[in-house]
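Subject: design request, 392 residues
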């Protein structure tokens, strides 16, 4: 028999944590049993806790902002997996369309691949910052107040304990104020903007409203570096790390900045920290390998490239650089193997074609070398034409 349920799973991207907490606080205050991953869940428990909690709850709320779908085109993305699991289990799906979200906007529509394409067909609820409470009333009275015949599966005792810990931590948080949600809205505008100056302006507004906004510091640093403002980018990465000393991305990016400024020791220090904080970061291992090469430590660089590829077997950047190192160390067979892998993964990688052409020429394979050189020239010319078209 259909019944009205008050159990909710809240799916969100970490960049939208204040929105998630605000929704949690409102629904919990009105008697709903809401689960969301507030504190972070240990890797060994994560998949089991998430899937069991989706099974145990009738309603599935999805917080959608321009930044939320950023990695959803990747099949292994967990935000995507949560949504697809809820679809499979036929939960009452309610997309919450937050400030600036548009299914048809560039950068959003192309993320909705496979089963995710169906997301646009669900009846979503717009949640403006200035009318948050009104939107929540509508969510409670209309979207969640529906009889359901969903088959729910109670979570195991261990998972229930973890869910209660997450809820207790969220309940202890201060009430989310409108100013913090407004900061989120400025952050999303910065994320959507294509002009670098506009990005910096919006992220600055977000930081003014929320002075400890790690994501805004991080994204403004990226925009400032693209503008050539290395001092401003460094200041923002320093602030992101000050607020969150375990932000591996900020250490990794600051390491890249220090490397570009010729500070190899500082870059190495940042990459070491990024790896300590996030031991499965293939990018940090690859970046540290390049610094070790610049420091003359070819053996250490090779170890780091190997680790990066073990962590991420289809990481073209690591494969290409390991190929160059193997070639320099007199291992043409190993280098050829890496360049073959890069070309398989990225058929538009001109440098890999060129480097493989050099190897084939030295092997006496003139026809194969010519074929690779032709491909490299064709790809380079296509890139020039694309750049010219963009400027035109």
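Subject: RE: design request

Done. Sequence follows.
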């Amino acid at each position: 028999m259909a019944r009205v349920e008050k159990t909710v799973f809240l799916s969100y991207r970490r960049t939208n944590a204040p929105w998630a907490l605000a929704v949690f606080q409102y629904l919990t205050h009105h008697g709903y049993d809401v689960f969301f991953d507030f504190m972070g869940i240990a890797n060994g428990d994560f998949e089991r806790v998430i899937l069991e909690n989706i099974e145990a709850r009738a309603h599935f709320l999805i917080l959608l902002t321009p930044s939320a779908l950023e990695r959803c085109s990747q099949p292994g993305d967990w935000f995507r997996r949560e949504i697809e699991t809820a679809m499979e289990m036929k939960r009452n799906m309610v997309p919450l369309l937050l400030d600036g979200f548009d299914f048809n906007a560039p950068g959003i529509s192309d993320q909705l691949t496979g089963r995710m394409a169906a997301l646009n067909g669900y009846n979503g609820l717009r949640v403006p910052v200035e009318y948050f409470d009104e939107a929540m009333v509508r969510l409670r009275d209309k979207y969640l107040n529906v009889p359901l015949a969903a088959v729910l599966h109670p979570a195991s005792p261990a998972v229930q304990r973890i869910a209660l810990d997450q809820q207790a931590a969220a309940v202890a948080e201060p009430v989310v104020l409108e100013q913090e949600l407004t900061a989120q809205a400025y952050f999303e505008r910065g994320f959507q903007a294509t002009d670098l100056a506009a990005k910096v302006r919006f992220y600055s507004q977000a930081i003014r409203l929320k002075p400890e906004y790690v994501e805004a510091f991080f994204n403004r640093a990226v925009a400032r570096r693209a503008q050539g403002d290395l001092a401003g980018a460094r200041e923002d990465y320093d602030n992101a790390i000050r607020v969150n000393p375990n932000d591996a991305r900020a250490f990794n990016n600051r390491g890249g900045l220090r490397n570009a400024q010729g500070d190899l020791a500082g870059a190495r220090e940042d990459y070491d920290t990024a790896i300590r904080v996030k031991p499965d970061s293939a990018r940090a291992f690859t970046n540290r390998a390049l610094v070790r090469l610049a420091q003359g430590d070819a053996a250490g660089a090779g170890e780091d490239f190997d680790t990066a590829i073990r962590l991420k077997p289809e990481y073209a950047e690591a494969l290409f650089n390991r190929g160059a190192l193997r070639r320099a160390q007199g291992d043409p067979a190993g280098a050829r193997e890496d360049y073959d892998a890069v070309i398989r993964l990225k058929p538009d990688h001109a440098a890999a074609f060129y480097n493989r052409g050099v190897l084939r020429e030295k092997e006496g394979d003139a026809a194969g070398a010519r074929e690779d050189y032709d491909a490299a020239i064709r790809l380079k010319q296509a890139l020039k034409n694309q750049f010219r078209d963009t400027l035109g």
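The mean pLDDT is 91.
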